[in-house]
Structures are given as C-alpha cells and as structure tokens.
Design a protein that fits this description.
The chain has 16 helices and 26 strands. By secondary structure, the chain is α+β, with helices and mostly antiparallel strands. The protein starts with 5 loop residues before the first helix and ends with a helix. Bound molecules: dioxothiomolybdenum(VI) ion. The site of dioxothiomolybdenum(VI) ion has 11 residues, from loops.
C-alpha cells in the first residue's frame, strides 16, 4: 500500500507546522545565553525595541505568567539564573522574521558568570544514583554474586566504552505557530510527536485547562525523539503571541536546534563479563555513567539492556548520574537501549574473541529461557532465529577465523555481528470510527512523523472492519481527536492500533459508530517480558593508509511480531540502521569545554550518513506470531533498527584490523592512532 500522504508530500502540498497560512502573523526570535552558568545582570532592550517592525521583547525583566510547577526547561523568563549556554534569555517579536532576527542581535544581555562544569567523568564528585532511571526502571539491580561469578570464570573481560553527545537532525526543523482567540483559547501548530501530549504540557506550562489548548501536527518531518517532549519554542510562540496580541510563528534554525531540542547524553559504560570453558556466562556487570542538567533529572536507562539479553547466574546493573551545566538531555531513537547495546554487544564480541568462540555461537549459548532479571516468561523471543537467519544470509560461515588477516590492496576487510532489542510496550489510547456515505472514518490523535503511521492505521482499520483500505479514512494529527499517546517508545502502532481495532469492532456491533478507550485493556495486560529482537551483520573495509572506514554491507534480521506493511517496516529498519551507522562512524557533538554549549552546531560539522555512505543496507524479518501483545500482534519497529548497529560495525572494524576502538565514533584519526 502506498503512503496515503505520499502524493501531497512529494508535490509540496503537505502542510508542516511553519507553513500554515495565518493572517497577520508575527515572528519570534530567541536570544540565547552566552555563558554556561551564572546570572543575568541586566537586559537592555532599548535599541532592539526601536528597530523597524519590532512589536515586543520578552525577558525576565517582565516575567510572563506561567504555572509555578512548569518544567524548568519550559519556564521561560521566570528567573535570572543561567543553567547552560544557549538557554533562552529573551526573545524579540517583530513583523518579519528578518526584523526579529536583527533585533534579537541588538538585545544587550550582561551576565555575572560563574565557573561551569560540562564534563562527564567517572570520578565526578557529584555522581549519584537516581531513584529510578527513565521509563520507570530501577537504577540498580543485583542478582547473584558478580565477584564470585568473575572469579569462577575461565574467560573475563573488563572494558569501558564511551559514546559522545549525539543530536537528532530531523529534516523538518522545529517550528510552531501560536494563535490566541478572543476567548483566550490557544491553537498551536507545532512540529511535535504527539498532539495530545503536547497539549497537556503546553496547558500545564501556561496554567490553562487542557480544553483551552489545541495542538495540530498533521505532518511532521521527522523527530526521532527530539519532538517527543514539548520544546521551549512552542511555549515561546504562545507567550510571544499573547504579548504581541498577534499570531506568532517561530522556526528554529538548525544551529538553535542543537541547543534547544535535547540530545543523547554522552555515556561512559563499564562492562565486566565472565564465561566458563564452554562459553556460558558466569557474570554480567554493566555500569553506565550519564549526564543531566542542573534543571531537570533526565536519567538515560543505558544499562537496562543487560537485564534482558543473556542468561547468567550473577548480574549487576547500575546507573550513575552527574548534573552538569548543560542543557537537559532528551530522547533520541532508542534512548537507553541504543548506547547500552553498543557497550554490551561490543563487550560480548570481546568475550567471544578472548574465549576463542564464534560471536554468533556465544550469543546462542547464552540464550535465556526467561527474562534474566525478573524471571518473567517472554511473550515471544526469537533472537536465536534472527542470528541464524542472518548468519545464513550474510554468509557468516565463510568468515575468517581470526581478526586482521584479510586484505584487498590497501583495504582491510572484516565482518561483525551484534544483537538488537527493544521493548514492545503499548499505552492507553482512544479512537472513534463512524460510517458516513458508505465510507469509514477513523479518528485518533496519532502522529505520522514520516513513519507511515497514517497508512499503517488505515490498513489496521480496514482489516478490523473487513473492508478495502480505500474505503477507510484515518484522521490524525490534532489534539481535538480522541486522546492518544506520543509517537515514541516504538509504541505508536501498538497503542493507537489497539484503540482503532476496538473502535472498529464497536462500530461493527453498532452498525453506525464505535468508540474505544483501551485504558482498562492495557491495565489488565498479563505480566510478561515483551521485547522485539534482532541481529545485525556488518562488513567493513578499513583503509590501512588513510584510516577511512566504509561499510559495503549491513544486514538486519528482526523479529518484531506481525509486520503491518512491508514497505513501511523496511523503511523504519533501514532508517534506524543508517542512523546506527552514523553513530558508529560519523556522529558526534563536541562540547565546548571553555564556554559551555556545543561546538558542533550544523550539518557541516555534525555528519549524518549520506547516500554514498550506505550503499547496501538490507533489512528482513522472520515470521513471528505473538498473540499476547495487542489485537494486531505487533511489536514496535521505529527504534530497534538503530540498536546494535554501532556494535556490529565496531566489531567488524576489530575483525578487519585487529584493533578495538572503544570510543565512538570510530574515526579515521582513531584508526590511524
Ligand atoms: Mo523516540 S526516542 O521514542 O521518540
């Protein structure tokens, strides 16, 4: 099935947040802190206010009214303290974008700076154990005796990996238009991953009842997590529109996005593994060090993957968090699982090498019967099938037995493997379905980020109704629609689809219309370990002279329950794998140690893979039936594609060169060193 909005997208008719025609719209442009920590001493807006077209300047000189319990990242202009370089300290509203931008440059902000600390390290004095880490997991777990397990092991590894700050770079920069009507009701066209969730946050921030706010996000040009939480630009648009008495548009520049839309925390991860003579794990210890801002505790759950992957009698996982003078990290495709599996799956490869075992076999040997941490049965788990199918397709049996022995001219050639995993959750959702003029209209406040959600939901509804998809019209992207969770956590299809199926079933009983709310259904889901799994295989070529690394082949084999649409699914998988390739070799945001903030601030400095970097990425899946997930039997597919890719490539670099690089990205300079 072709994407329903494919034609309007490729013809430029799809309307994105900044593109809604709004009469009399004005423009806001933020002024950002130039220090990493301290206080605002003074704000002189006189010159800016006198410039052409300027309507207003917002700043803490006149703090706008906001809820007292607003998220500190969104509580604009409430205080004088600076928590990170790039924080919004003022904004100019003007008749045109260029007027606003020019005047923002003329706002004079003086500061009382204080020394800052922007460096995550394992001996940081402020490290602490958070009460819990993201998604509600305990920060630390312990089972058995890790020291005894390591002491009893035939082979051990004790290795530390680091991953850098990473930034989401969706094609559509973050943007919003805010309009207040005469009754004080706010409409926001926002580039957001969830209309309903965004409405809730904007209403809470402004201290408004939810029914006084509406968020519309019919088309969104990617997000990867950066639009999963309400960002300050949306609140700024609302405040600016209120102050100027006109609708206000704000469109962040690519450079501003690096400061204001979140990022993946850097990580330092120590892995200690032990295995007996046959390769059975005797111990896993996974410690993750991550950072957050001084404003908000954001604790990325990097070490939770070790609780799911392998059978072991002793297992310890721990998270330590440092609060630095940095912007608050946020979600980036598979937050937690992605950096965590880079470390765990690299360490498994090191263990295989140390033990003289094939890395596919090492994983197969350690396949658990039940969830290694909680002991719950898996709803379904087909990691071994993915490894076997991948090995067959990839030609793994022809792999050189030792690293560093295959050379083609100047190129060293190697292959690597890593496992993938991601939770298969769902969240409560509402949906409605009605018959009108013989067609079926389904409504749910879902979001299509470019994933194809609209198309997938149409197929799901058509299946539930027993009619052809062209008789089904799915309306999404508006908080006025039945309430739905965010497009995030790979939960969209499972959550929205469950409600759509139930609404369609209700329509079939009623004959005219149906409504569903899956809150009770989701609450009564049986206690099971629900995860998608996969296996990724990479071939790399490393130039012995220049250190250049190419990836001629990437293969992912996934087990993700029922696949709703093959074309959309392939797109998600290879998109995730491509992003994983970027993480392995290219992507890195350097922190400015001297001034705070980030040194990399655009696509010339932050390199994402381009077409020439990814000549052959193949994603396939195995048939997996799992009736205990949701009515469709689906597991999410948006994130698992990125999980494990970087480890597979790093492991292949080791196989090619005999050298292990434990700090991402694996650059030519590191290879040559
Ligand atoms: Mo994604 S990081 O769950 O938006």
């Amino acid at each position: 099935m072709n994407r329903i909005e494919g034609r309007v997208k490729v013809t430029g008719l799809a309307t994105y947040a900044a593109e809604y025609p709004v009469e009399d719209v004005a423009y806001a442009y933020p002024v950002q802190a130039t220090i990493a920590r301290g206080r605002i001493d003074g704000i002189d807006a006189a010159e800016a206010l006198a410039m052409p077209g300027v309507l207003a300047v917002l700043s803490s000189d006149e703090p706008p009214e906001l809820a007292a319990d607003a998220d500190p990242e969104l509580a604009l202009f409430q205080g004088r303290e600076i928590a990170y370089r790039g924080q919004i300290v003022a904004a100019v509203v003007a008749g045109t974008y260029d007027q606003a931008r020019a005047a923002a440059d003329a706002v004079r902000v003086t500061y009382l700076p204080q020394p800052h600390d922007v460096t995550l390290r394992t001996d940081h004095a402020g490290l602490y154990t958070p009460d819990q880490v993201n998604a509600g997991f305990p920060a630390d777990t312990a089972k058995g005796d890790v020291e005894a397990g390591l002491a009893a092991a035939e082979t051990t590894v004790d290795v530390t990996y680091t991953t850098p700050v990473l930034h989401n770079n969706p094609m559509e920069p973050h943007a919003a238009i805010a309009l207040w009507d005469d009754e004080g009701t706010l409409l926001v066209y926002n580039s957001a991953q969830g209309a309903a969730t965004d409405r809730t946050t904007i209403a809470k921030t402004l201290g408004l009842p939810e029914e006084r706010v509406r968020v519309v996000n019919r088309h969104v040009g990617g997000g990867f997590g950066s639009k999963g939480t309400t960002r300050p630009h949306a609140v700024l648009a609302a405040l600016a529109a209120r102050k100027a008495g006109r609708p206000v548009k704000i469109a962040l520049t690519r450079q501003q996005m690096f400061d204001l839309t979140g990022y993946r925390t850097p990580t330092i991860q120590r892995l200690r593994l032990g295995a007996d003579r046959s390769g059975r794990l005797t111990a896993i210890e996974h410690e993750a060090y991550v950072q957050s801002s001084t404003l908000v505790e954001f604790a990325e759950q990097a070490a939770v993957v070790a609780r799911t992957m392998y059978a072991t009698p002793s297992l310890r996982t721990a998270h330590r968090l440092a609060r630095l003078d940095v912007a608050t990290p946020s979600w980036m495709r598979a937050p937690g699982e992605c950096p965590g599996m880079y470390a765990l799956e690299s360490a498994m490869d090191e263990l295989a090498t140390a033990a003289g075992l094939d890395p596919v076999e090492l994983r197969v040997i350690n396949e658990p019967d039940t969830d290694p941490d909680g002991g719950l049965p898996f709803s379904s788990r087909n990691l071994v099938a993915c490894l076997r199918e991948g090995a067959r397709r990839f030609g793994w049996d022809r792999r050189d037995p030792a690293p560093g022995i295959r050379r083609a001219g100047d190129w060293l050639v190697g292959t690597g493997v890593a496992a993938s995993t991601y939770p298969a959750r769902r969240a409560p959702c509402q949906a409605s379905a009605v018959v009108r003029d013989g067609d079926f209209h389904v409504r749910v406040a879902a979001t299509d980020l470019g994933t194809g959600a609209r198309t997938a939901l149409t197929k799901i509804a058509a299946g539930a109704l027993g009619v052809a998809p062209d008789r089904v019209h799915v309306e999404i992207g508006d908080s006025d629609l039945p309430k739905a969770p965010v497009a995030g956590g790979s939960m969209g299809t499972a959550s929205w689809g469950s409600a759509v199926v139930r609404a369609c079933e209700a329509l079939r009983r009623d004959g005219q219309e149906g409504f569903a709310d899956t809150t009770d259904e989701v609450k009564s889901d049986a206690a099971l370990a629900r995860h998608a799994f996969g296996a990724q295989f990479a071939e790399v070529r490393v130039n012995a002279v220049t250190g250049e690394i190419r990836v001629p082949r990437l293969l992912g084999v996934f087990a993700c329950g029922h696949i709703v649409d093959a074309e959309l699914a392939r797109s998600q998988f290879i998109g995730g794998m491509t992003m994983g390739l970027g993480m392995a070799l290219l992507e890195e945001t350097l922190t400015d140690l001297e001034f705070g903030g980030f040194l990399h601030r655009d696509l010339a400095q932050y390199h994402v893979p381009a077409c020439a970097d990814v000549p052959d990425v193949e994603a396939v899946w195995i048939d997996e039936q799992d009736d205990r997930l949701n009515p469709m039997g689906v597991k999410g597919i948006g994130e698992i594609g990125i999980v494990g890719t970087a480890a597979a490539i790093g492991n292949a670099v080791h196989h090619a060169t005999g050298r292990r690089i434990r700090d991402l990205p694996i650059t030519p300079a590191k290879v040559l060193a």
